[in-house]
C-alpha cells in the first residue's frame, strides 16, 4: 500500500494559469470553446461514445459522428474521405505505412519519402516507424521553395534509382510560421508522379486550407493544437478512390476494422470536443476572419520590431500567427540579473502571461491567435515594461 504522503501530489494537479493571457503556440488555437467544455463534462468518462458503436466508430449515427466524419470533415478539408485520428503524427504514420505496405506488396524495397528541412520530429519518426528513409530539402534562407522539392526528388531518383513514395510539406513550419507555396509544391511533385501530404498541424483549424484547391493527395491536422479540442486528437484526409482504399483498407481478421486506424482511433472526450468546437472552427477559418488574425499579428510584430529590441525570423511581412523572435534585450538582462535566464518567465508570470518556456530569453516562439487587439497590446506593453524595469528601453 502506498504511503498517504506519496499520493498527496496527485490529489489536485493544477497550473493556475486559467486567467492568464496565453501566447503558447501549442495552446492558443487549441483552447476549448464553451461548447467543447460542455462536451468534455458530458463525454469525459472513459471512452463514452463506444457505448453507441457497432464496430466502426466513424459509422456511429448518434451522437452524429458519421455525419461529421463522412460529410462535414471531408468538405472542410477538401478531400474525398476523412477520419478522426489520435493526432497529426498518427495520421502521418498511417499514410506512410499505407504507402510502404503497398510498395512492399509489389516487391519494392528501400523506399523513402521527401520532406521539407523544417519537418517536425514526429514526421521523421513516422517515416522511420513505417520503415522509410528520408531525403530532406535543402535548408532555406527564409522559406521552402517549390524548386527545393524538385531538387530533393531529383537527388532521390539519382541516388536510389526510383522516385519517393511521398513528398511532405509542413504548412506552416512549426518553428517560424512560414507559409510555403502549396499549389506550386504540389505541381512540382506531381510532375514526378509523387503524391503530396500537407502537414497542417498549425493551419487546419486556424486558417483557410483546402487539399483539393491545391491538388494535394493527403492532409493532416491537429485537433488539440488548432481545432479547439482536448487532445490527443487529429484529422486525416485523402483524395482519390485508389489512395483511400489503400489507406483505409479493412482487416482480414475483422472485416469492419480499418488496419491503419488499429480498429478505432479517437473516442470519448477528444472526438466529442472536436465536434463541439467545429462550428466555431469553420467560422474562424473563413478568409475574412483569418485576414483579421494576420493583420493583428503583423501589427504586434511591427510594434516589437519598432522598439529595436526584437527581431522576427522568417517571412516578413508575416502571414501567420505563429512567430519566432530574437530578443537581445531580454538576453542581455539574463546575463546580469540574479535569476539569470529564468527572470523573463518570472516577470511574465507576475503579469499573468503564459506561453514562453522557462529559461528562454535569447529567442522564443509565440502565437497571437485569437487574442485580439486588447490582449496583444497588453503583451507588447508588458514586454516594454520589463525591458524598462531593467533599463533596457
Please describe what this structure looks like:
The chain is of the alpha/beta class. Helix content is 42%, strand content 12%. It has helices at 4-7, 34-43, 65-77, 88-105, 121-129, 146-160, 182-191, 211-214, 223-226, 241-247, 269-284, 287-306, 328-336, 343-350, 372-389; strands at 21-22, 81-85, 112-115, 133-136, 166-170, 196-199, 218-222, 234-238, 311-313, 322-326, 353-354, 363-367. Helix 5 (121-129) links the parallel strand 3 (112-115) and strand 4. Helix 4 packs parallel to helix 5, helix 6 (146-160) runs parallel beside helix 7 and helix 12 (287-306) runs parallel beside helix 15. The longest helix is centred in the last third of the chain and has 20 residues, at 287-306. The mean pLDDT is 93.
**What is the CATH H-level superfamily of the largest domain?**
Type I PLP-dependent aspartate aminotransferase-like (Major domain)
How many strand units? 12
- Tell me roughly what share of residues is in helical segments: 40-55%
Shape: globular
Number of helices: 15
User: Segments where pLDDT lies below 50 for 5+ residues?
Assistant: none
Keywords:
alpha/beta, globular, seven-stranded mixed sheet, Aspartate Aminotransferase, domain 2, Aspartate Aminotransferase, domain 1, 2 domains, 393 residues, 42% helix
Question: What is the topology?
Answer:
Blueprint: H1 4-7, E1 21-22, H2 34-43, H3 65-77, E2 81-85, H4 88-105, E3 112-115, H5 121-129, E4 133-136, H6 146-160, E5 166-170, H7 182-191, E6 196-199, H8 211-214, E7 218-222, H9 223-226, E8 234-238, H10 241-247, H11 269-284, H12 287-306, E9 311-313, E10 322-326, H13 328-336, H14 343-350, E11 353-354, E12 363-367, H15 372-389
Parallel strand pairs: 1-11, 3-4, 3-5, 5-6, 6-7
Antiparallel strand pairs: 2-8, 7-8, 9-10, 10-12
Amino acid at each position: 500500500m502506498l504511503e498517504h504522503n506519496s499520493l498527496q501530489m496527485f490529489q489536485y494537479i493544477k497550473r493556475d494559469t486559467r486567467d492568464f493571457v496565453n501566447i503558447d503556440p501549442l495552446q492558443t488555437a487549441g483552447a476549448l470553446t464553451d461548447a467543447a467544455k460542455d462536451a468534455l463534462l458530458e463525454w469525459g468518462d472513459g471512452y463514452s461514445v463506444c457505448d453507441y458503436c457497432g464496430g466502426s466508430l466513424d459509422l456511429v449515427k448518434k451522437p452524429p459522428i458519421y455525419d461529421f466524419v463522412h460529410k462535414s470533415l471531408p468538405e472542410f478539408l477538401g478531400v474525398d474521405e476523412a477520419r478522426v485520428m489520435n493526432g497529426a503524427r498518427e495520421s502521418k504514420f498511417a499514410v506512410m505505412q499505407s504507402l510502404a505496405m503497398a510498395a512492399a506488396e509489389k516487391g519494392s524495397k528501400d523506399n523513402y519519402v521527401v520532406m521539407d528541412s523544417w519537418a517536425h520530429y514526429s514526421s521523421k519518426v513516422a517515416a522511420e516507424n513505417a520503415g522509410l528513409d528520408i531525403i530532406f530539402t535543402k535548408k532555406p534562407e527564409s522559406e521552402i521553395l517549390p524548386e527545393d522539392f524538385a531538387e530533393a526528388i531529383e537527388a532521390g531518383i539519382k541516388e536510389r534509382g526510383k522516385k519517393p513514395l511521398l513528398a511532405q510539406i509542413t504548412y506552416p513550419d512549426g518553428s517560424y510560421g512560414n507559409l510555403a507555396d502549396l499549389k506550386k509544391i504540389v505541381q512540382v511533385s506531381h510532375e514526378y508522379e509523387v503524391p503530396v501530404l500537407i502537414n497542417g498541424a498549425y493551419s487546419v483549424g486556424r486558417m483557410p486550407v483546402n487539399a483539393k484547391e491545391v491538388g494535394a493527395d493527403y492532409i493532416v491536422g491537429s485537433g488539440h493544437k488548432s481545432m479547439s479540442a482536448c487532445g490527443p486528437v487529429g484529422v486525416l484526409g485523402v483524395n482519390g478512390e485508389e489512395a483511400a482504399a489503400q489507406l483505409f483498407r479493412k482487416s482480414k481478421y475483422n472485416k469492419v476494422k480499418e488496419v491503419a486506424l488499429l480498429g478505432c482511433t479517437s473516442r470519448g472526450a477528444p472526438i466529442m470536443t472536436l465536434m463541439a468546437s467545429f462550428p466555431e472552427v469553420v467560422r474562424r477559418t473563413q478568409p475574412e476572419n483569418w485576414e483579421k488574425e494576420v493583420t493583428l499579428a503583423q501589427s504586434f510584430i511591427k510594434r516589437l520590431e519598432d522598439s529595436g529590441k526584437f527581431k522576427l525570423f522568417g517571412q516578413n511581412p508575416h502571414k501567420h500567427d505563429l512567430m519566432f523572435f530574437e530578443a537581445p534585450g531580454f538576453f542581455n538582462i539574463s546575463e546580469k540579473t540574479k535569476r539569470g535566464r529564468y527572470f523573463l518567465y518570472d516577470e511574465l508570470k507576475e503579469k499573468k502571461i503564459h506561453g514562453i518556456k522557462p529559461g528562454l530569453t535569447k529567442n522564443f516562439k509565440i502565437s497571437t491567435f485569437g487574442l485580439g487587439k486588447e490582449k496583444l497590446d497588453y503583451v507588447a506593453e508588458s514586454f516594454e515594461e520589463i525591458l524598462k524595469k531593467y533599463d533596457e528601453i
